[in-house]
Design a protein that fits this description.
Blueprint lengths: L1 H8 L5 H17 L20 H10 L3 H7 L4 H13 L2 H22 L6 H12 L7 H18 L3 H14 L7 H11 L3 H29 L10 H4 L8 H16 L11 H12 L1 H5 L10 H4 L2 H4 L11 H25 L15
Helix pairs in contact: 1-2, 2-6, 3-5, 5-6, 5-9, 6-8, 7-18, 8-9, 8-10, 10-14, 13-14
């Protein structure tokens, strides 16, 4: 991605070749993994739930696509993707299709906003923090990327494509319905009535913070997403969940940078107001999440935007070689420490040790 960005600035050839090669490396790395790299494929961790290998074996044994869909225990589009992979003959293709759906939308967005946000920094955040999630919380990682692309399409006034993508995201993981909030937040951020909407949002946030569980009980009665782990009474009243104080700390840092930054690039859909709303919701994820149990994982549809707020740090560093180099060392160093701590020592997402499928 960095080489593609430099080639684009210098108006050199090879821009798309660099983009293609970097994306292929990330996708193939995931496609070649063994089934026990990441918990979600086999459901080997407590609470793990994708069980794509089971779907894959069911598709292999099925002589009828319709019968397979009737039997499938997961979301319909995710089931279709698994069915197509099974007909290709190997789990390699399931991992391949999964990661393509995760990576391609991210690359489209990063390249579109490259003049406002250096894609190298944003991609680094994605690789060190979020890429590994695509090996474990596969369905939700896929849905998050598609929802982000839906917001991007909405910003381009391609409303039909935005709606189609949003529907696809829900068809992959029912929790994607939460992503509608991000589309609404973007609309509010650019609306000529945004001052009125801000007042309504403050009221909604305060009400939601203190009465979230009561509101969700009403919501579940009206729209029972019976197959979604994220919208079930079991999830809502569980004590599980993985949103930690990290989101609180990073949201505070991001809020400070967004509010205090004097110059703001407005050429992309990632405008100041939109990101400000996202970070406020993440800031409130701790008090709200305390009432959500396992369902608090729905906040992942917001925290992916740290990809664009954390690199704002470089706008506060003097623009000379020495200070920028020091800033890069600190930035990449902290990301590397995060990866080592959570993925290597804690064993988050179950991706370490990595081994290819032919090494099983």
């Amino acid at each position: 991605m960095r080489k593609a960005y430099i080639a684009d600035i210098a108006d050199e050839g090879g821009t798309y070749r660099y983009l293609f090669l970097s994306a292929v490396i990330l996708i193939l790395l995931a496609a070649c993994r063994g089934d026990r790299v990441g918990w979600d494929i086999l459901g080997t961790a407590s609470g793990g739930g994708g069980y794509q290998k089971g779907l894959f074996l069911g598709a292999l044994a099925s002589d009828s696509f319709i019968d397979y869909l009737r039997w499938s225990y997961e979301e319909p589009i995710y089931s279709v993707i698994t069915y197509l992979a099974a007909k290709c003959g190997h789990m390699f293709f399931a991992h391949l299709f999964n990661m393509m759906i995760i990576i391609i939308p991210i690359y489209i967005i990063l390249w579109d906003v490259r003049h406002d946000y250096d894609p190298a920094y944003s991609l680094a955040v994605f690789l060190f923090v979020y890429y590994g999630q695509g090996y474990n919380i596969v369905r939700q990682a896929m849905a998050i990327s598609i929802v982000m692309l839906s917001v991007w399409m909405f910003s381009k006034e391609k409303y039909l494509w935005s709606a189609v993508l949003f529907a696809v995201a829900i068809g992959i993981h029912y929790s994607a319905v939460v992503g509608l909030i991000t589309i609404i937040l973007y609309y509010v951020s650019i609306s000529r009535f945004r001052n009125i909407y801000r007042i309504l949002m403050v009221v909604a946030l305060i009400t939601g913070t203190f009465f979230f569980r009561q509101i969700m009980q009403v919501f579940l009665r009206l729209l029972p997403f019976v197959k979604s782990n994220y919208f079930s009474r079991r999830a809502l009243f569980s004590t599980d969940g993985d949103i930690s104080a990290t989101s609180l700390i990073l949201s505070i840092i991001s809020l400070i940078m967004i509010v205090t930054l004097s110059e703001w690039n407005t050429g992309s859909f990632l405008n100041r107001t939109f990101l400000l709303y996202i970070m406020i919701i993440l800031f409130l994820s701790i008090p709200i999440g305390g009432q959500m149990g396992y369902a608090r994982r729905a906040f992942r549809y917001f925290d992916r935007y740290f990809m664009f707020t954390l690199p704002l740090l470089f706008k506060f560093i003097p623009n000379d070689d020495g200070n920028q180099t020091l800033g890069k060392i600190m930035f990449y160093g902290m990301l590397m420490l995060y990866w080592i701590a959570f993925y290597f020592f804690v064993g988050s997402q179950g991706i370490v040790p990595y081994y290819p499928f032919w090494g099983e």
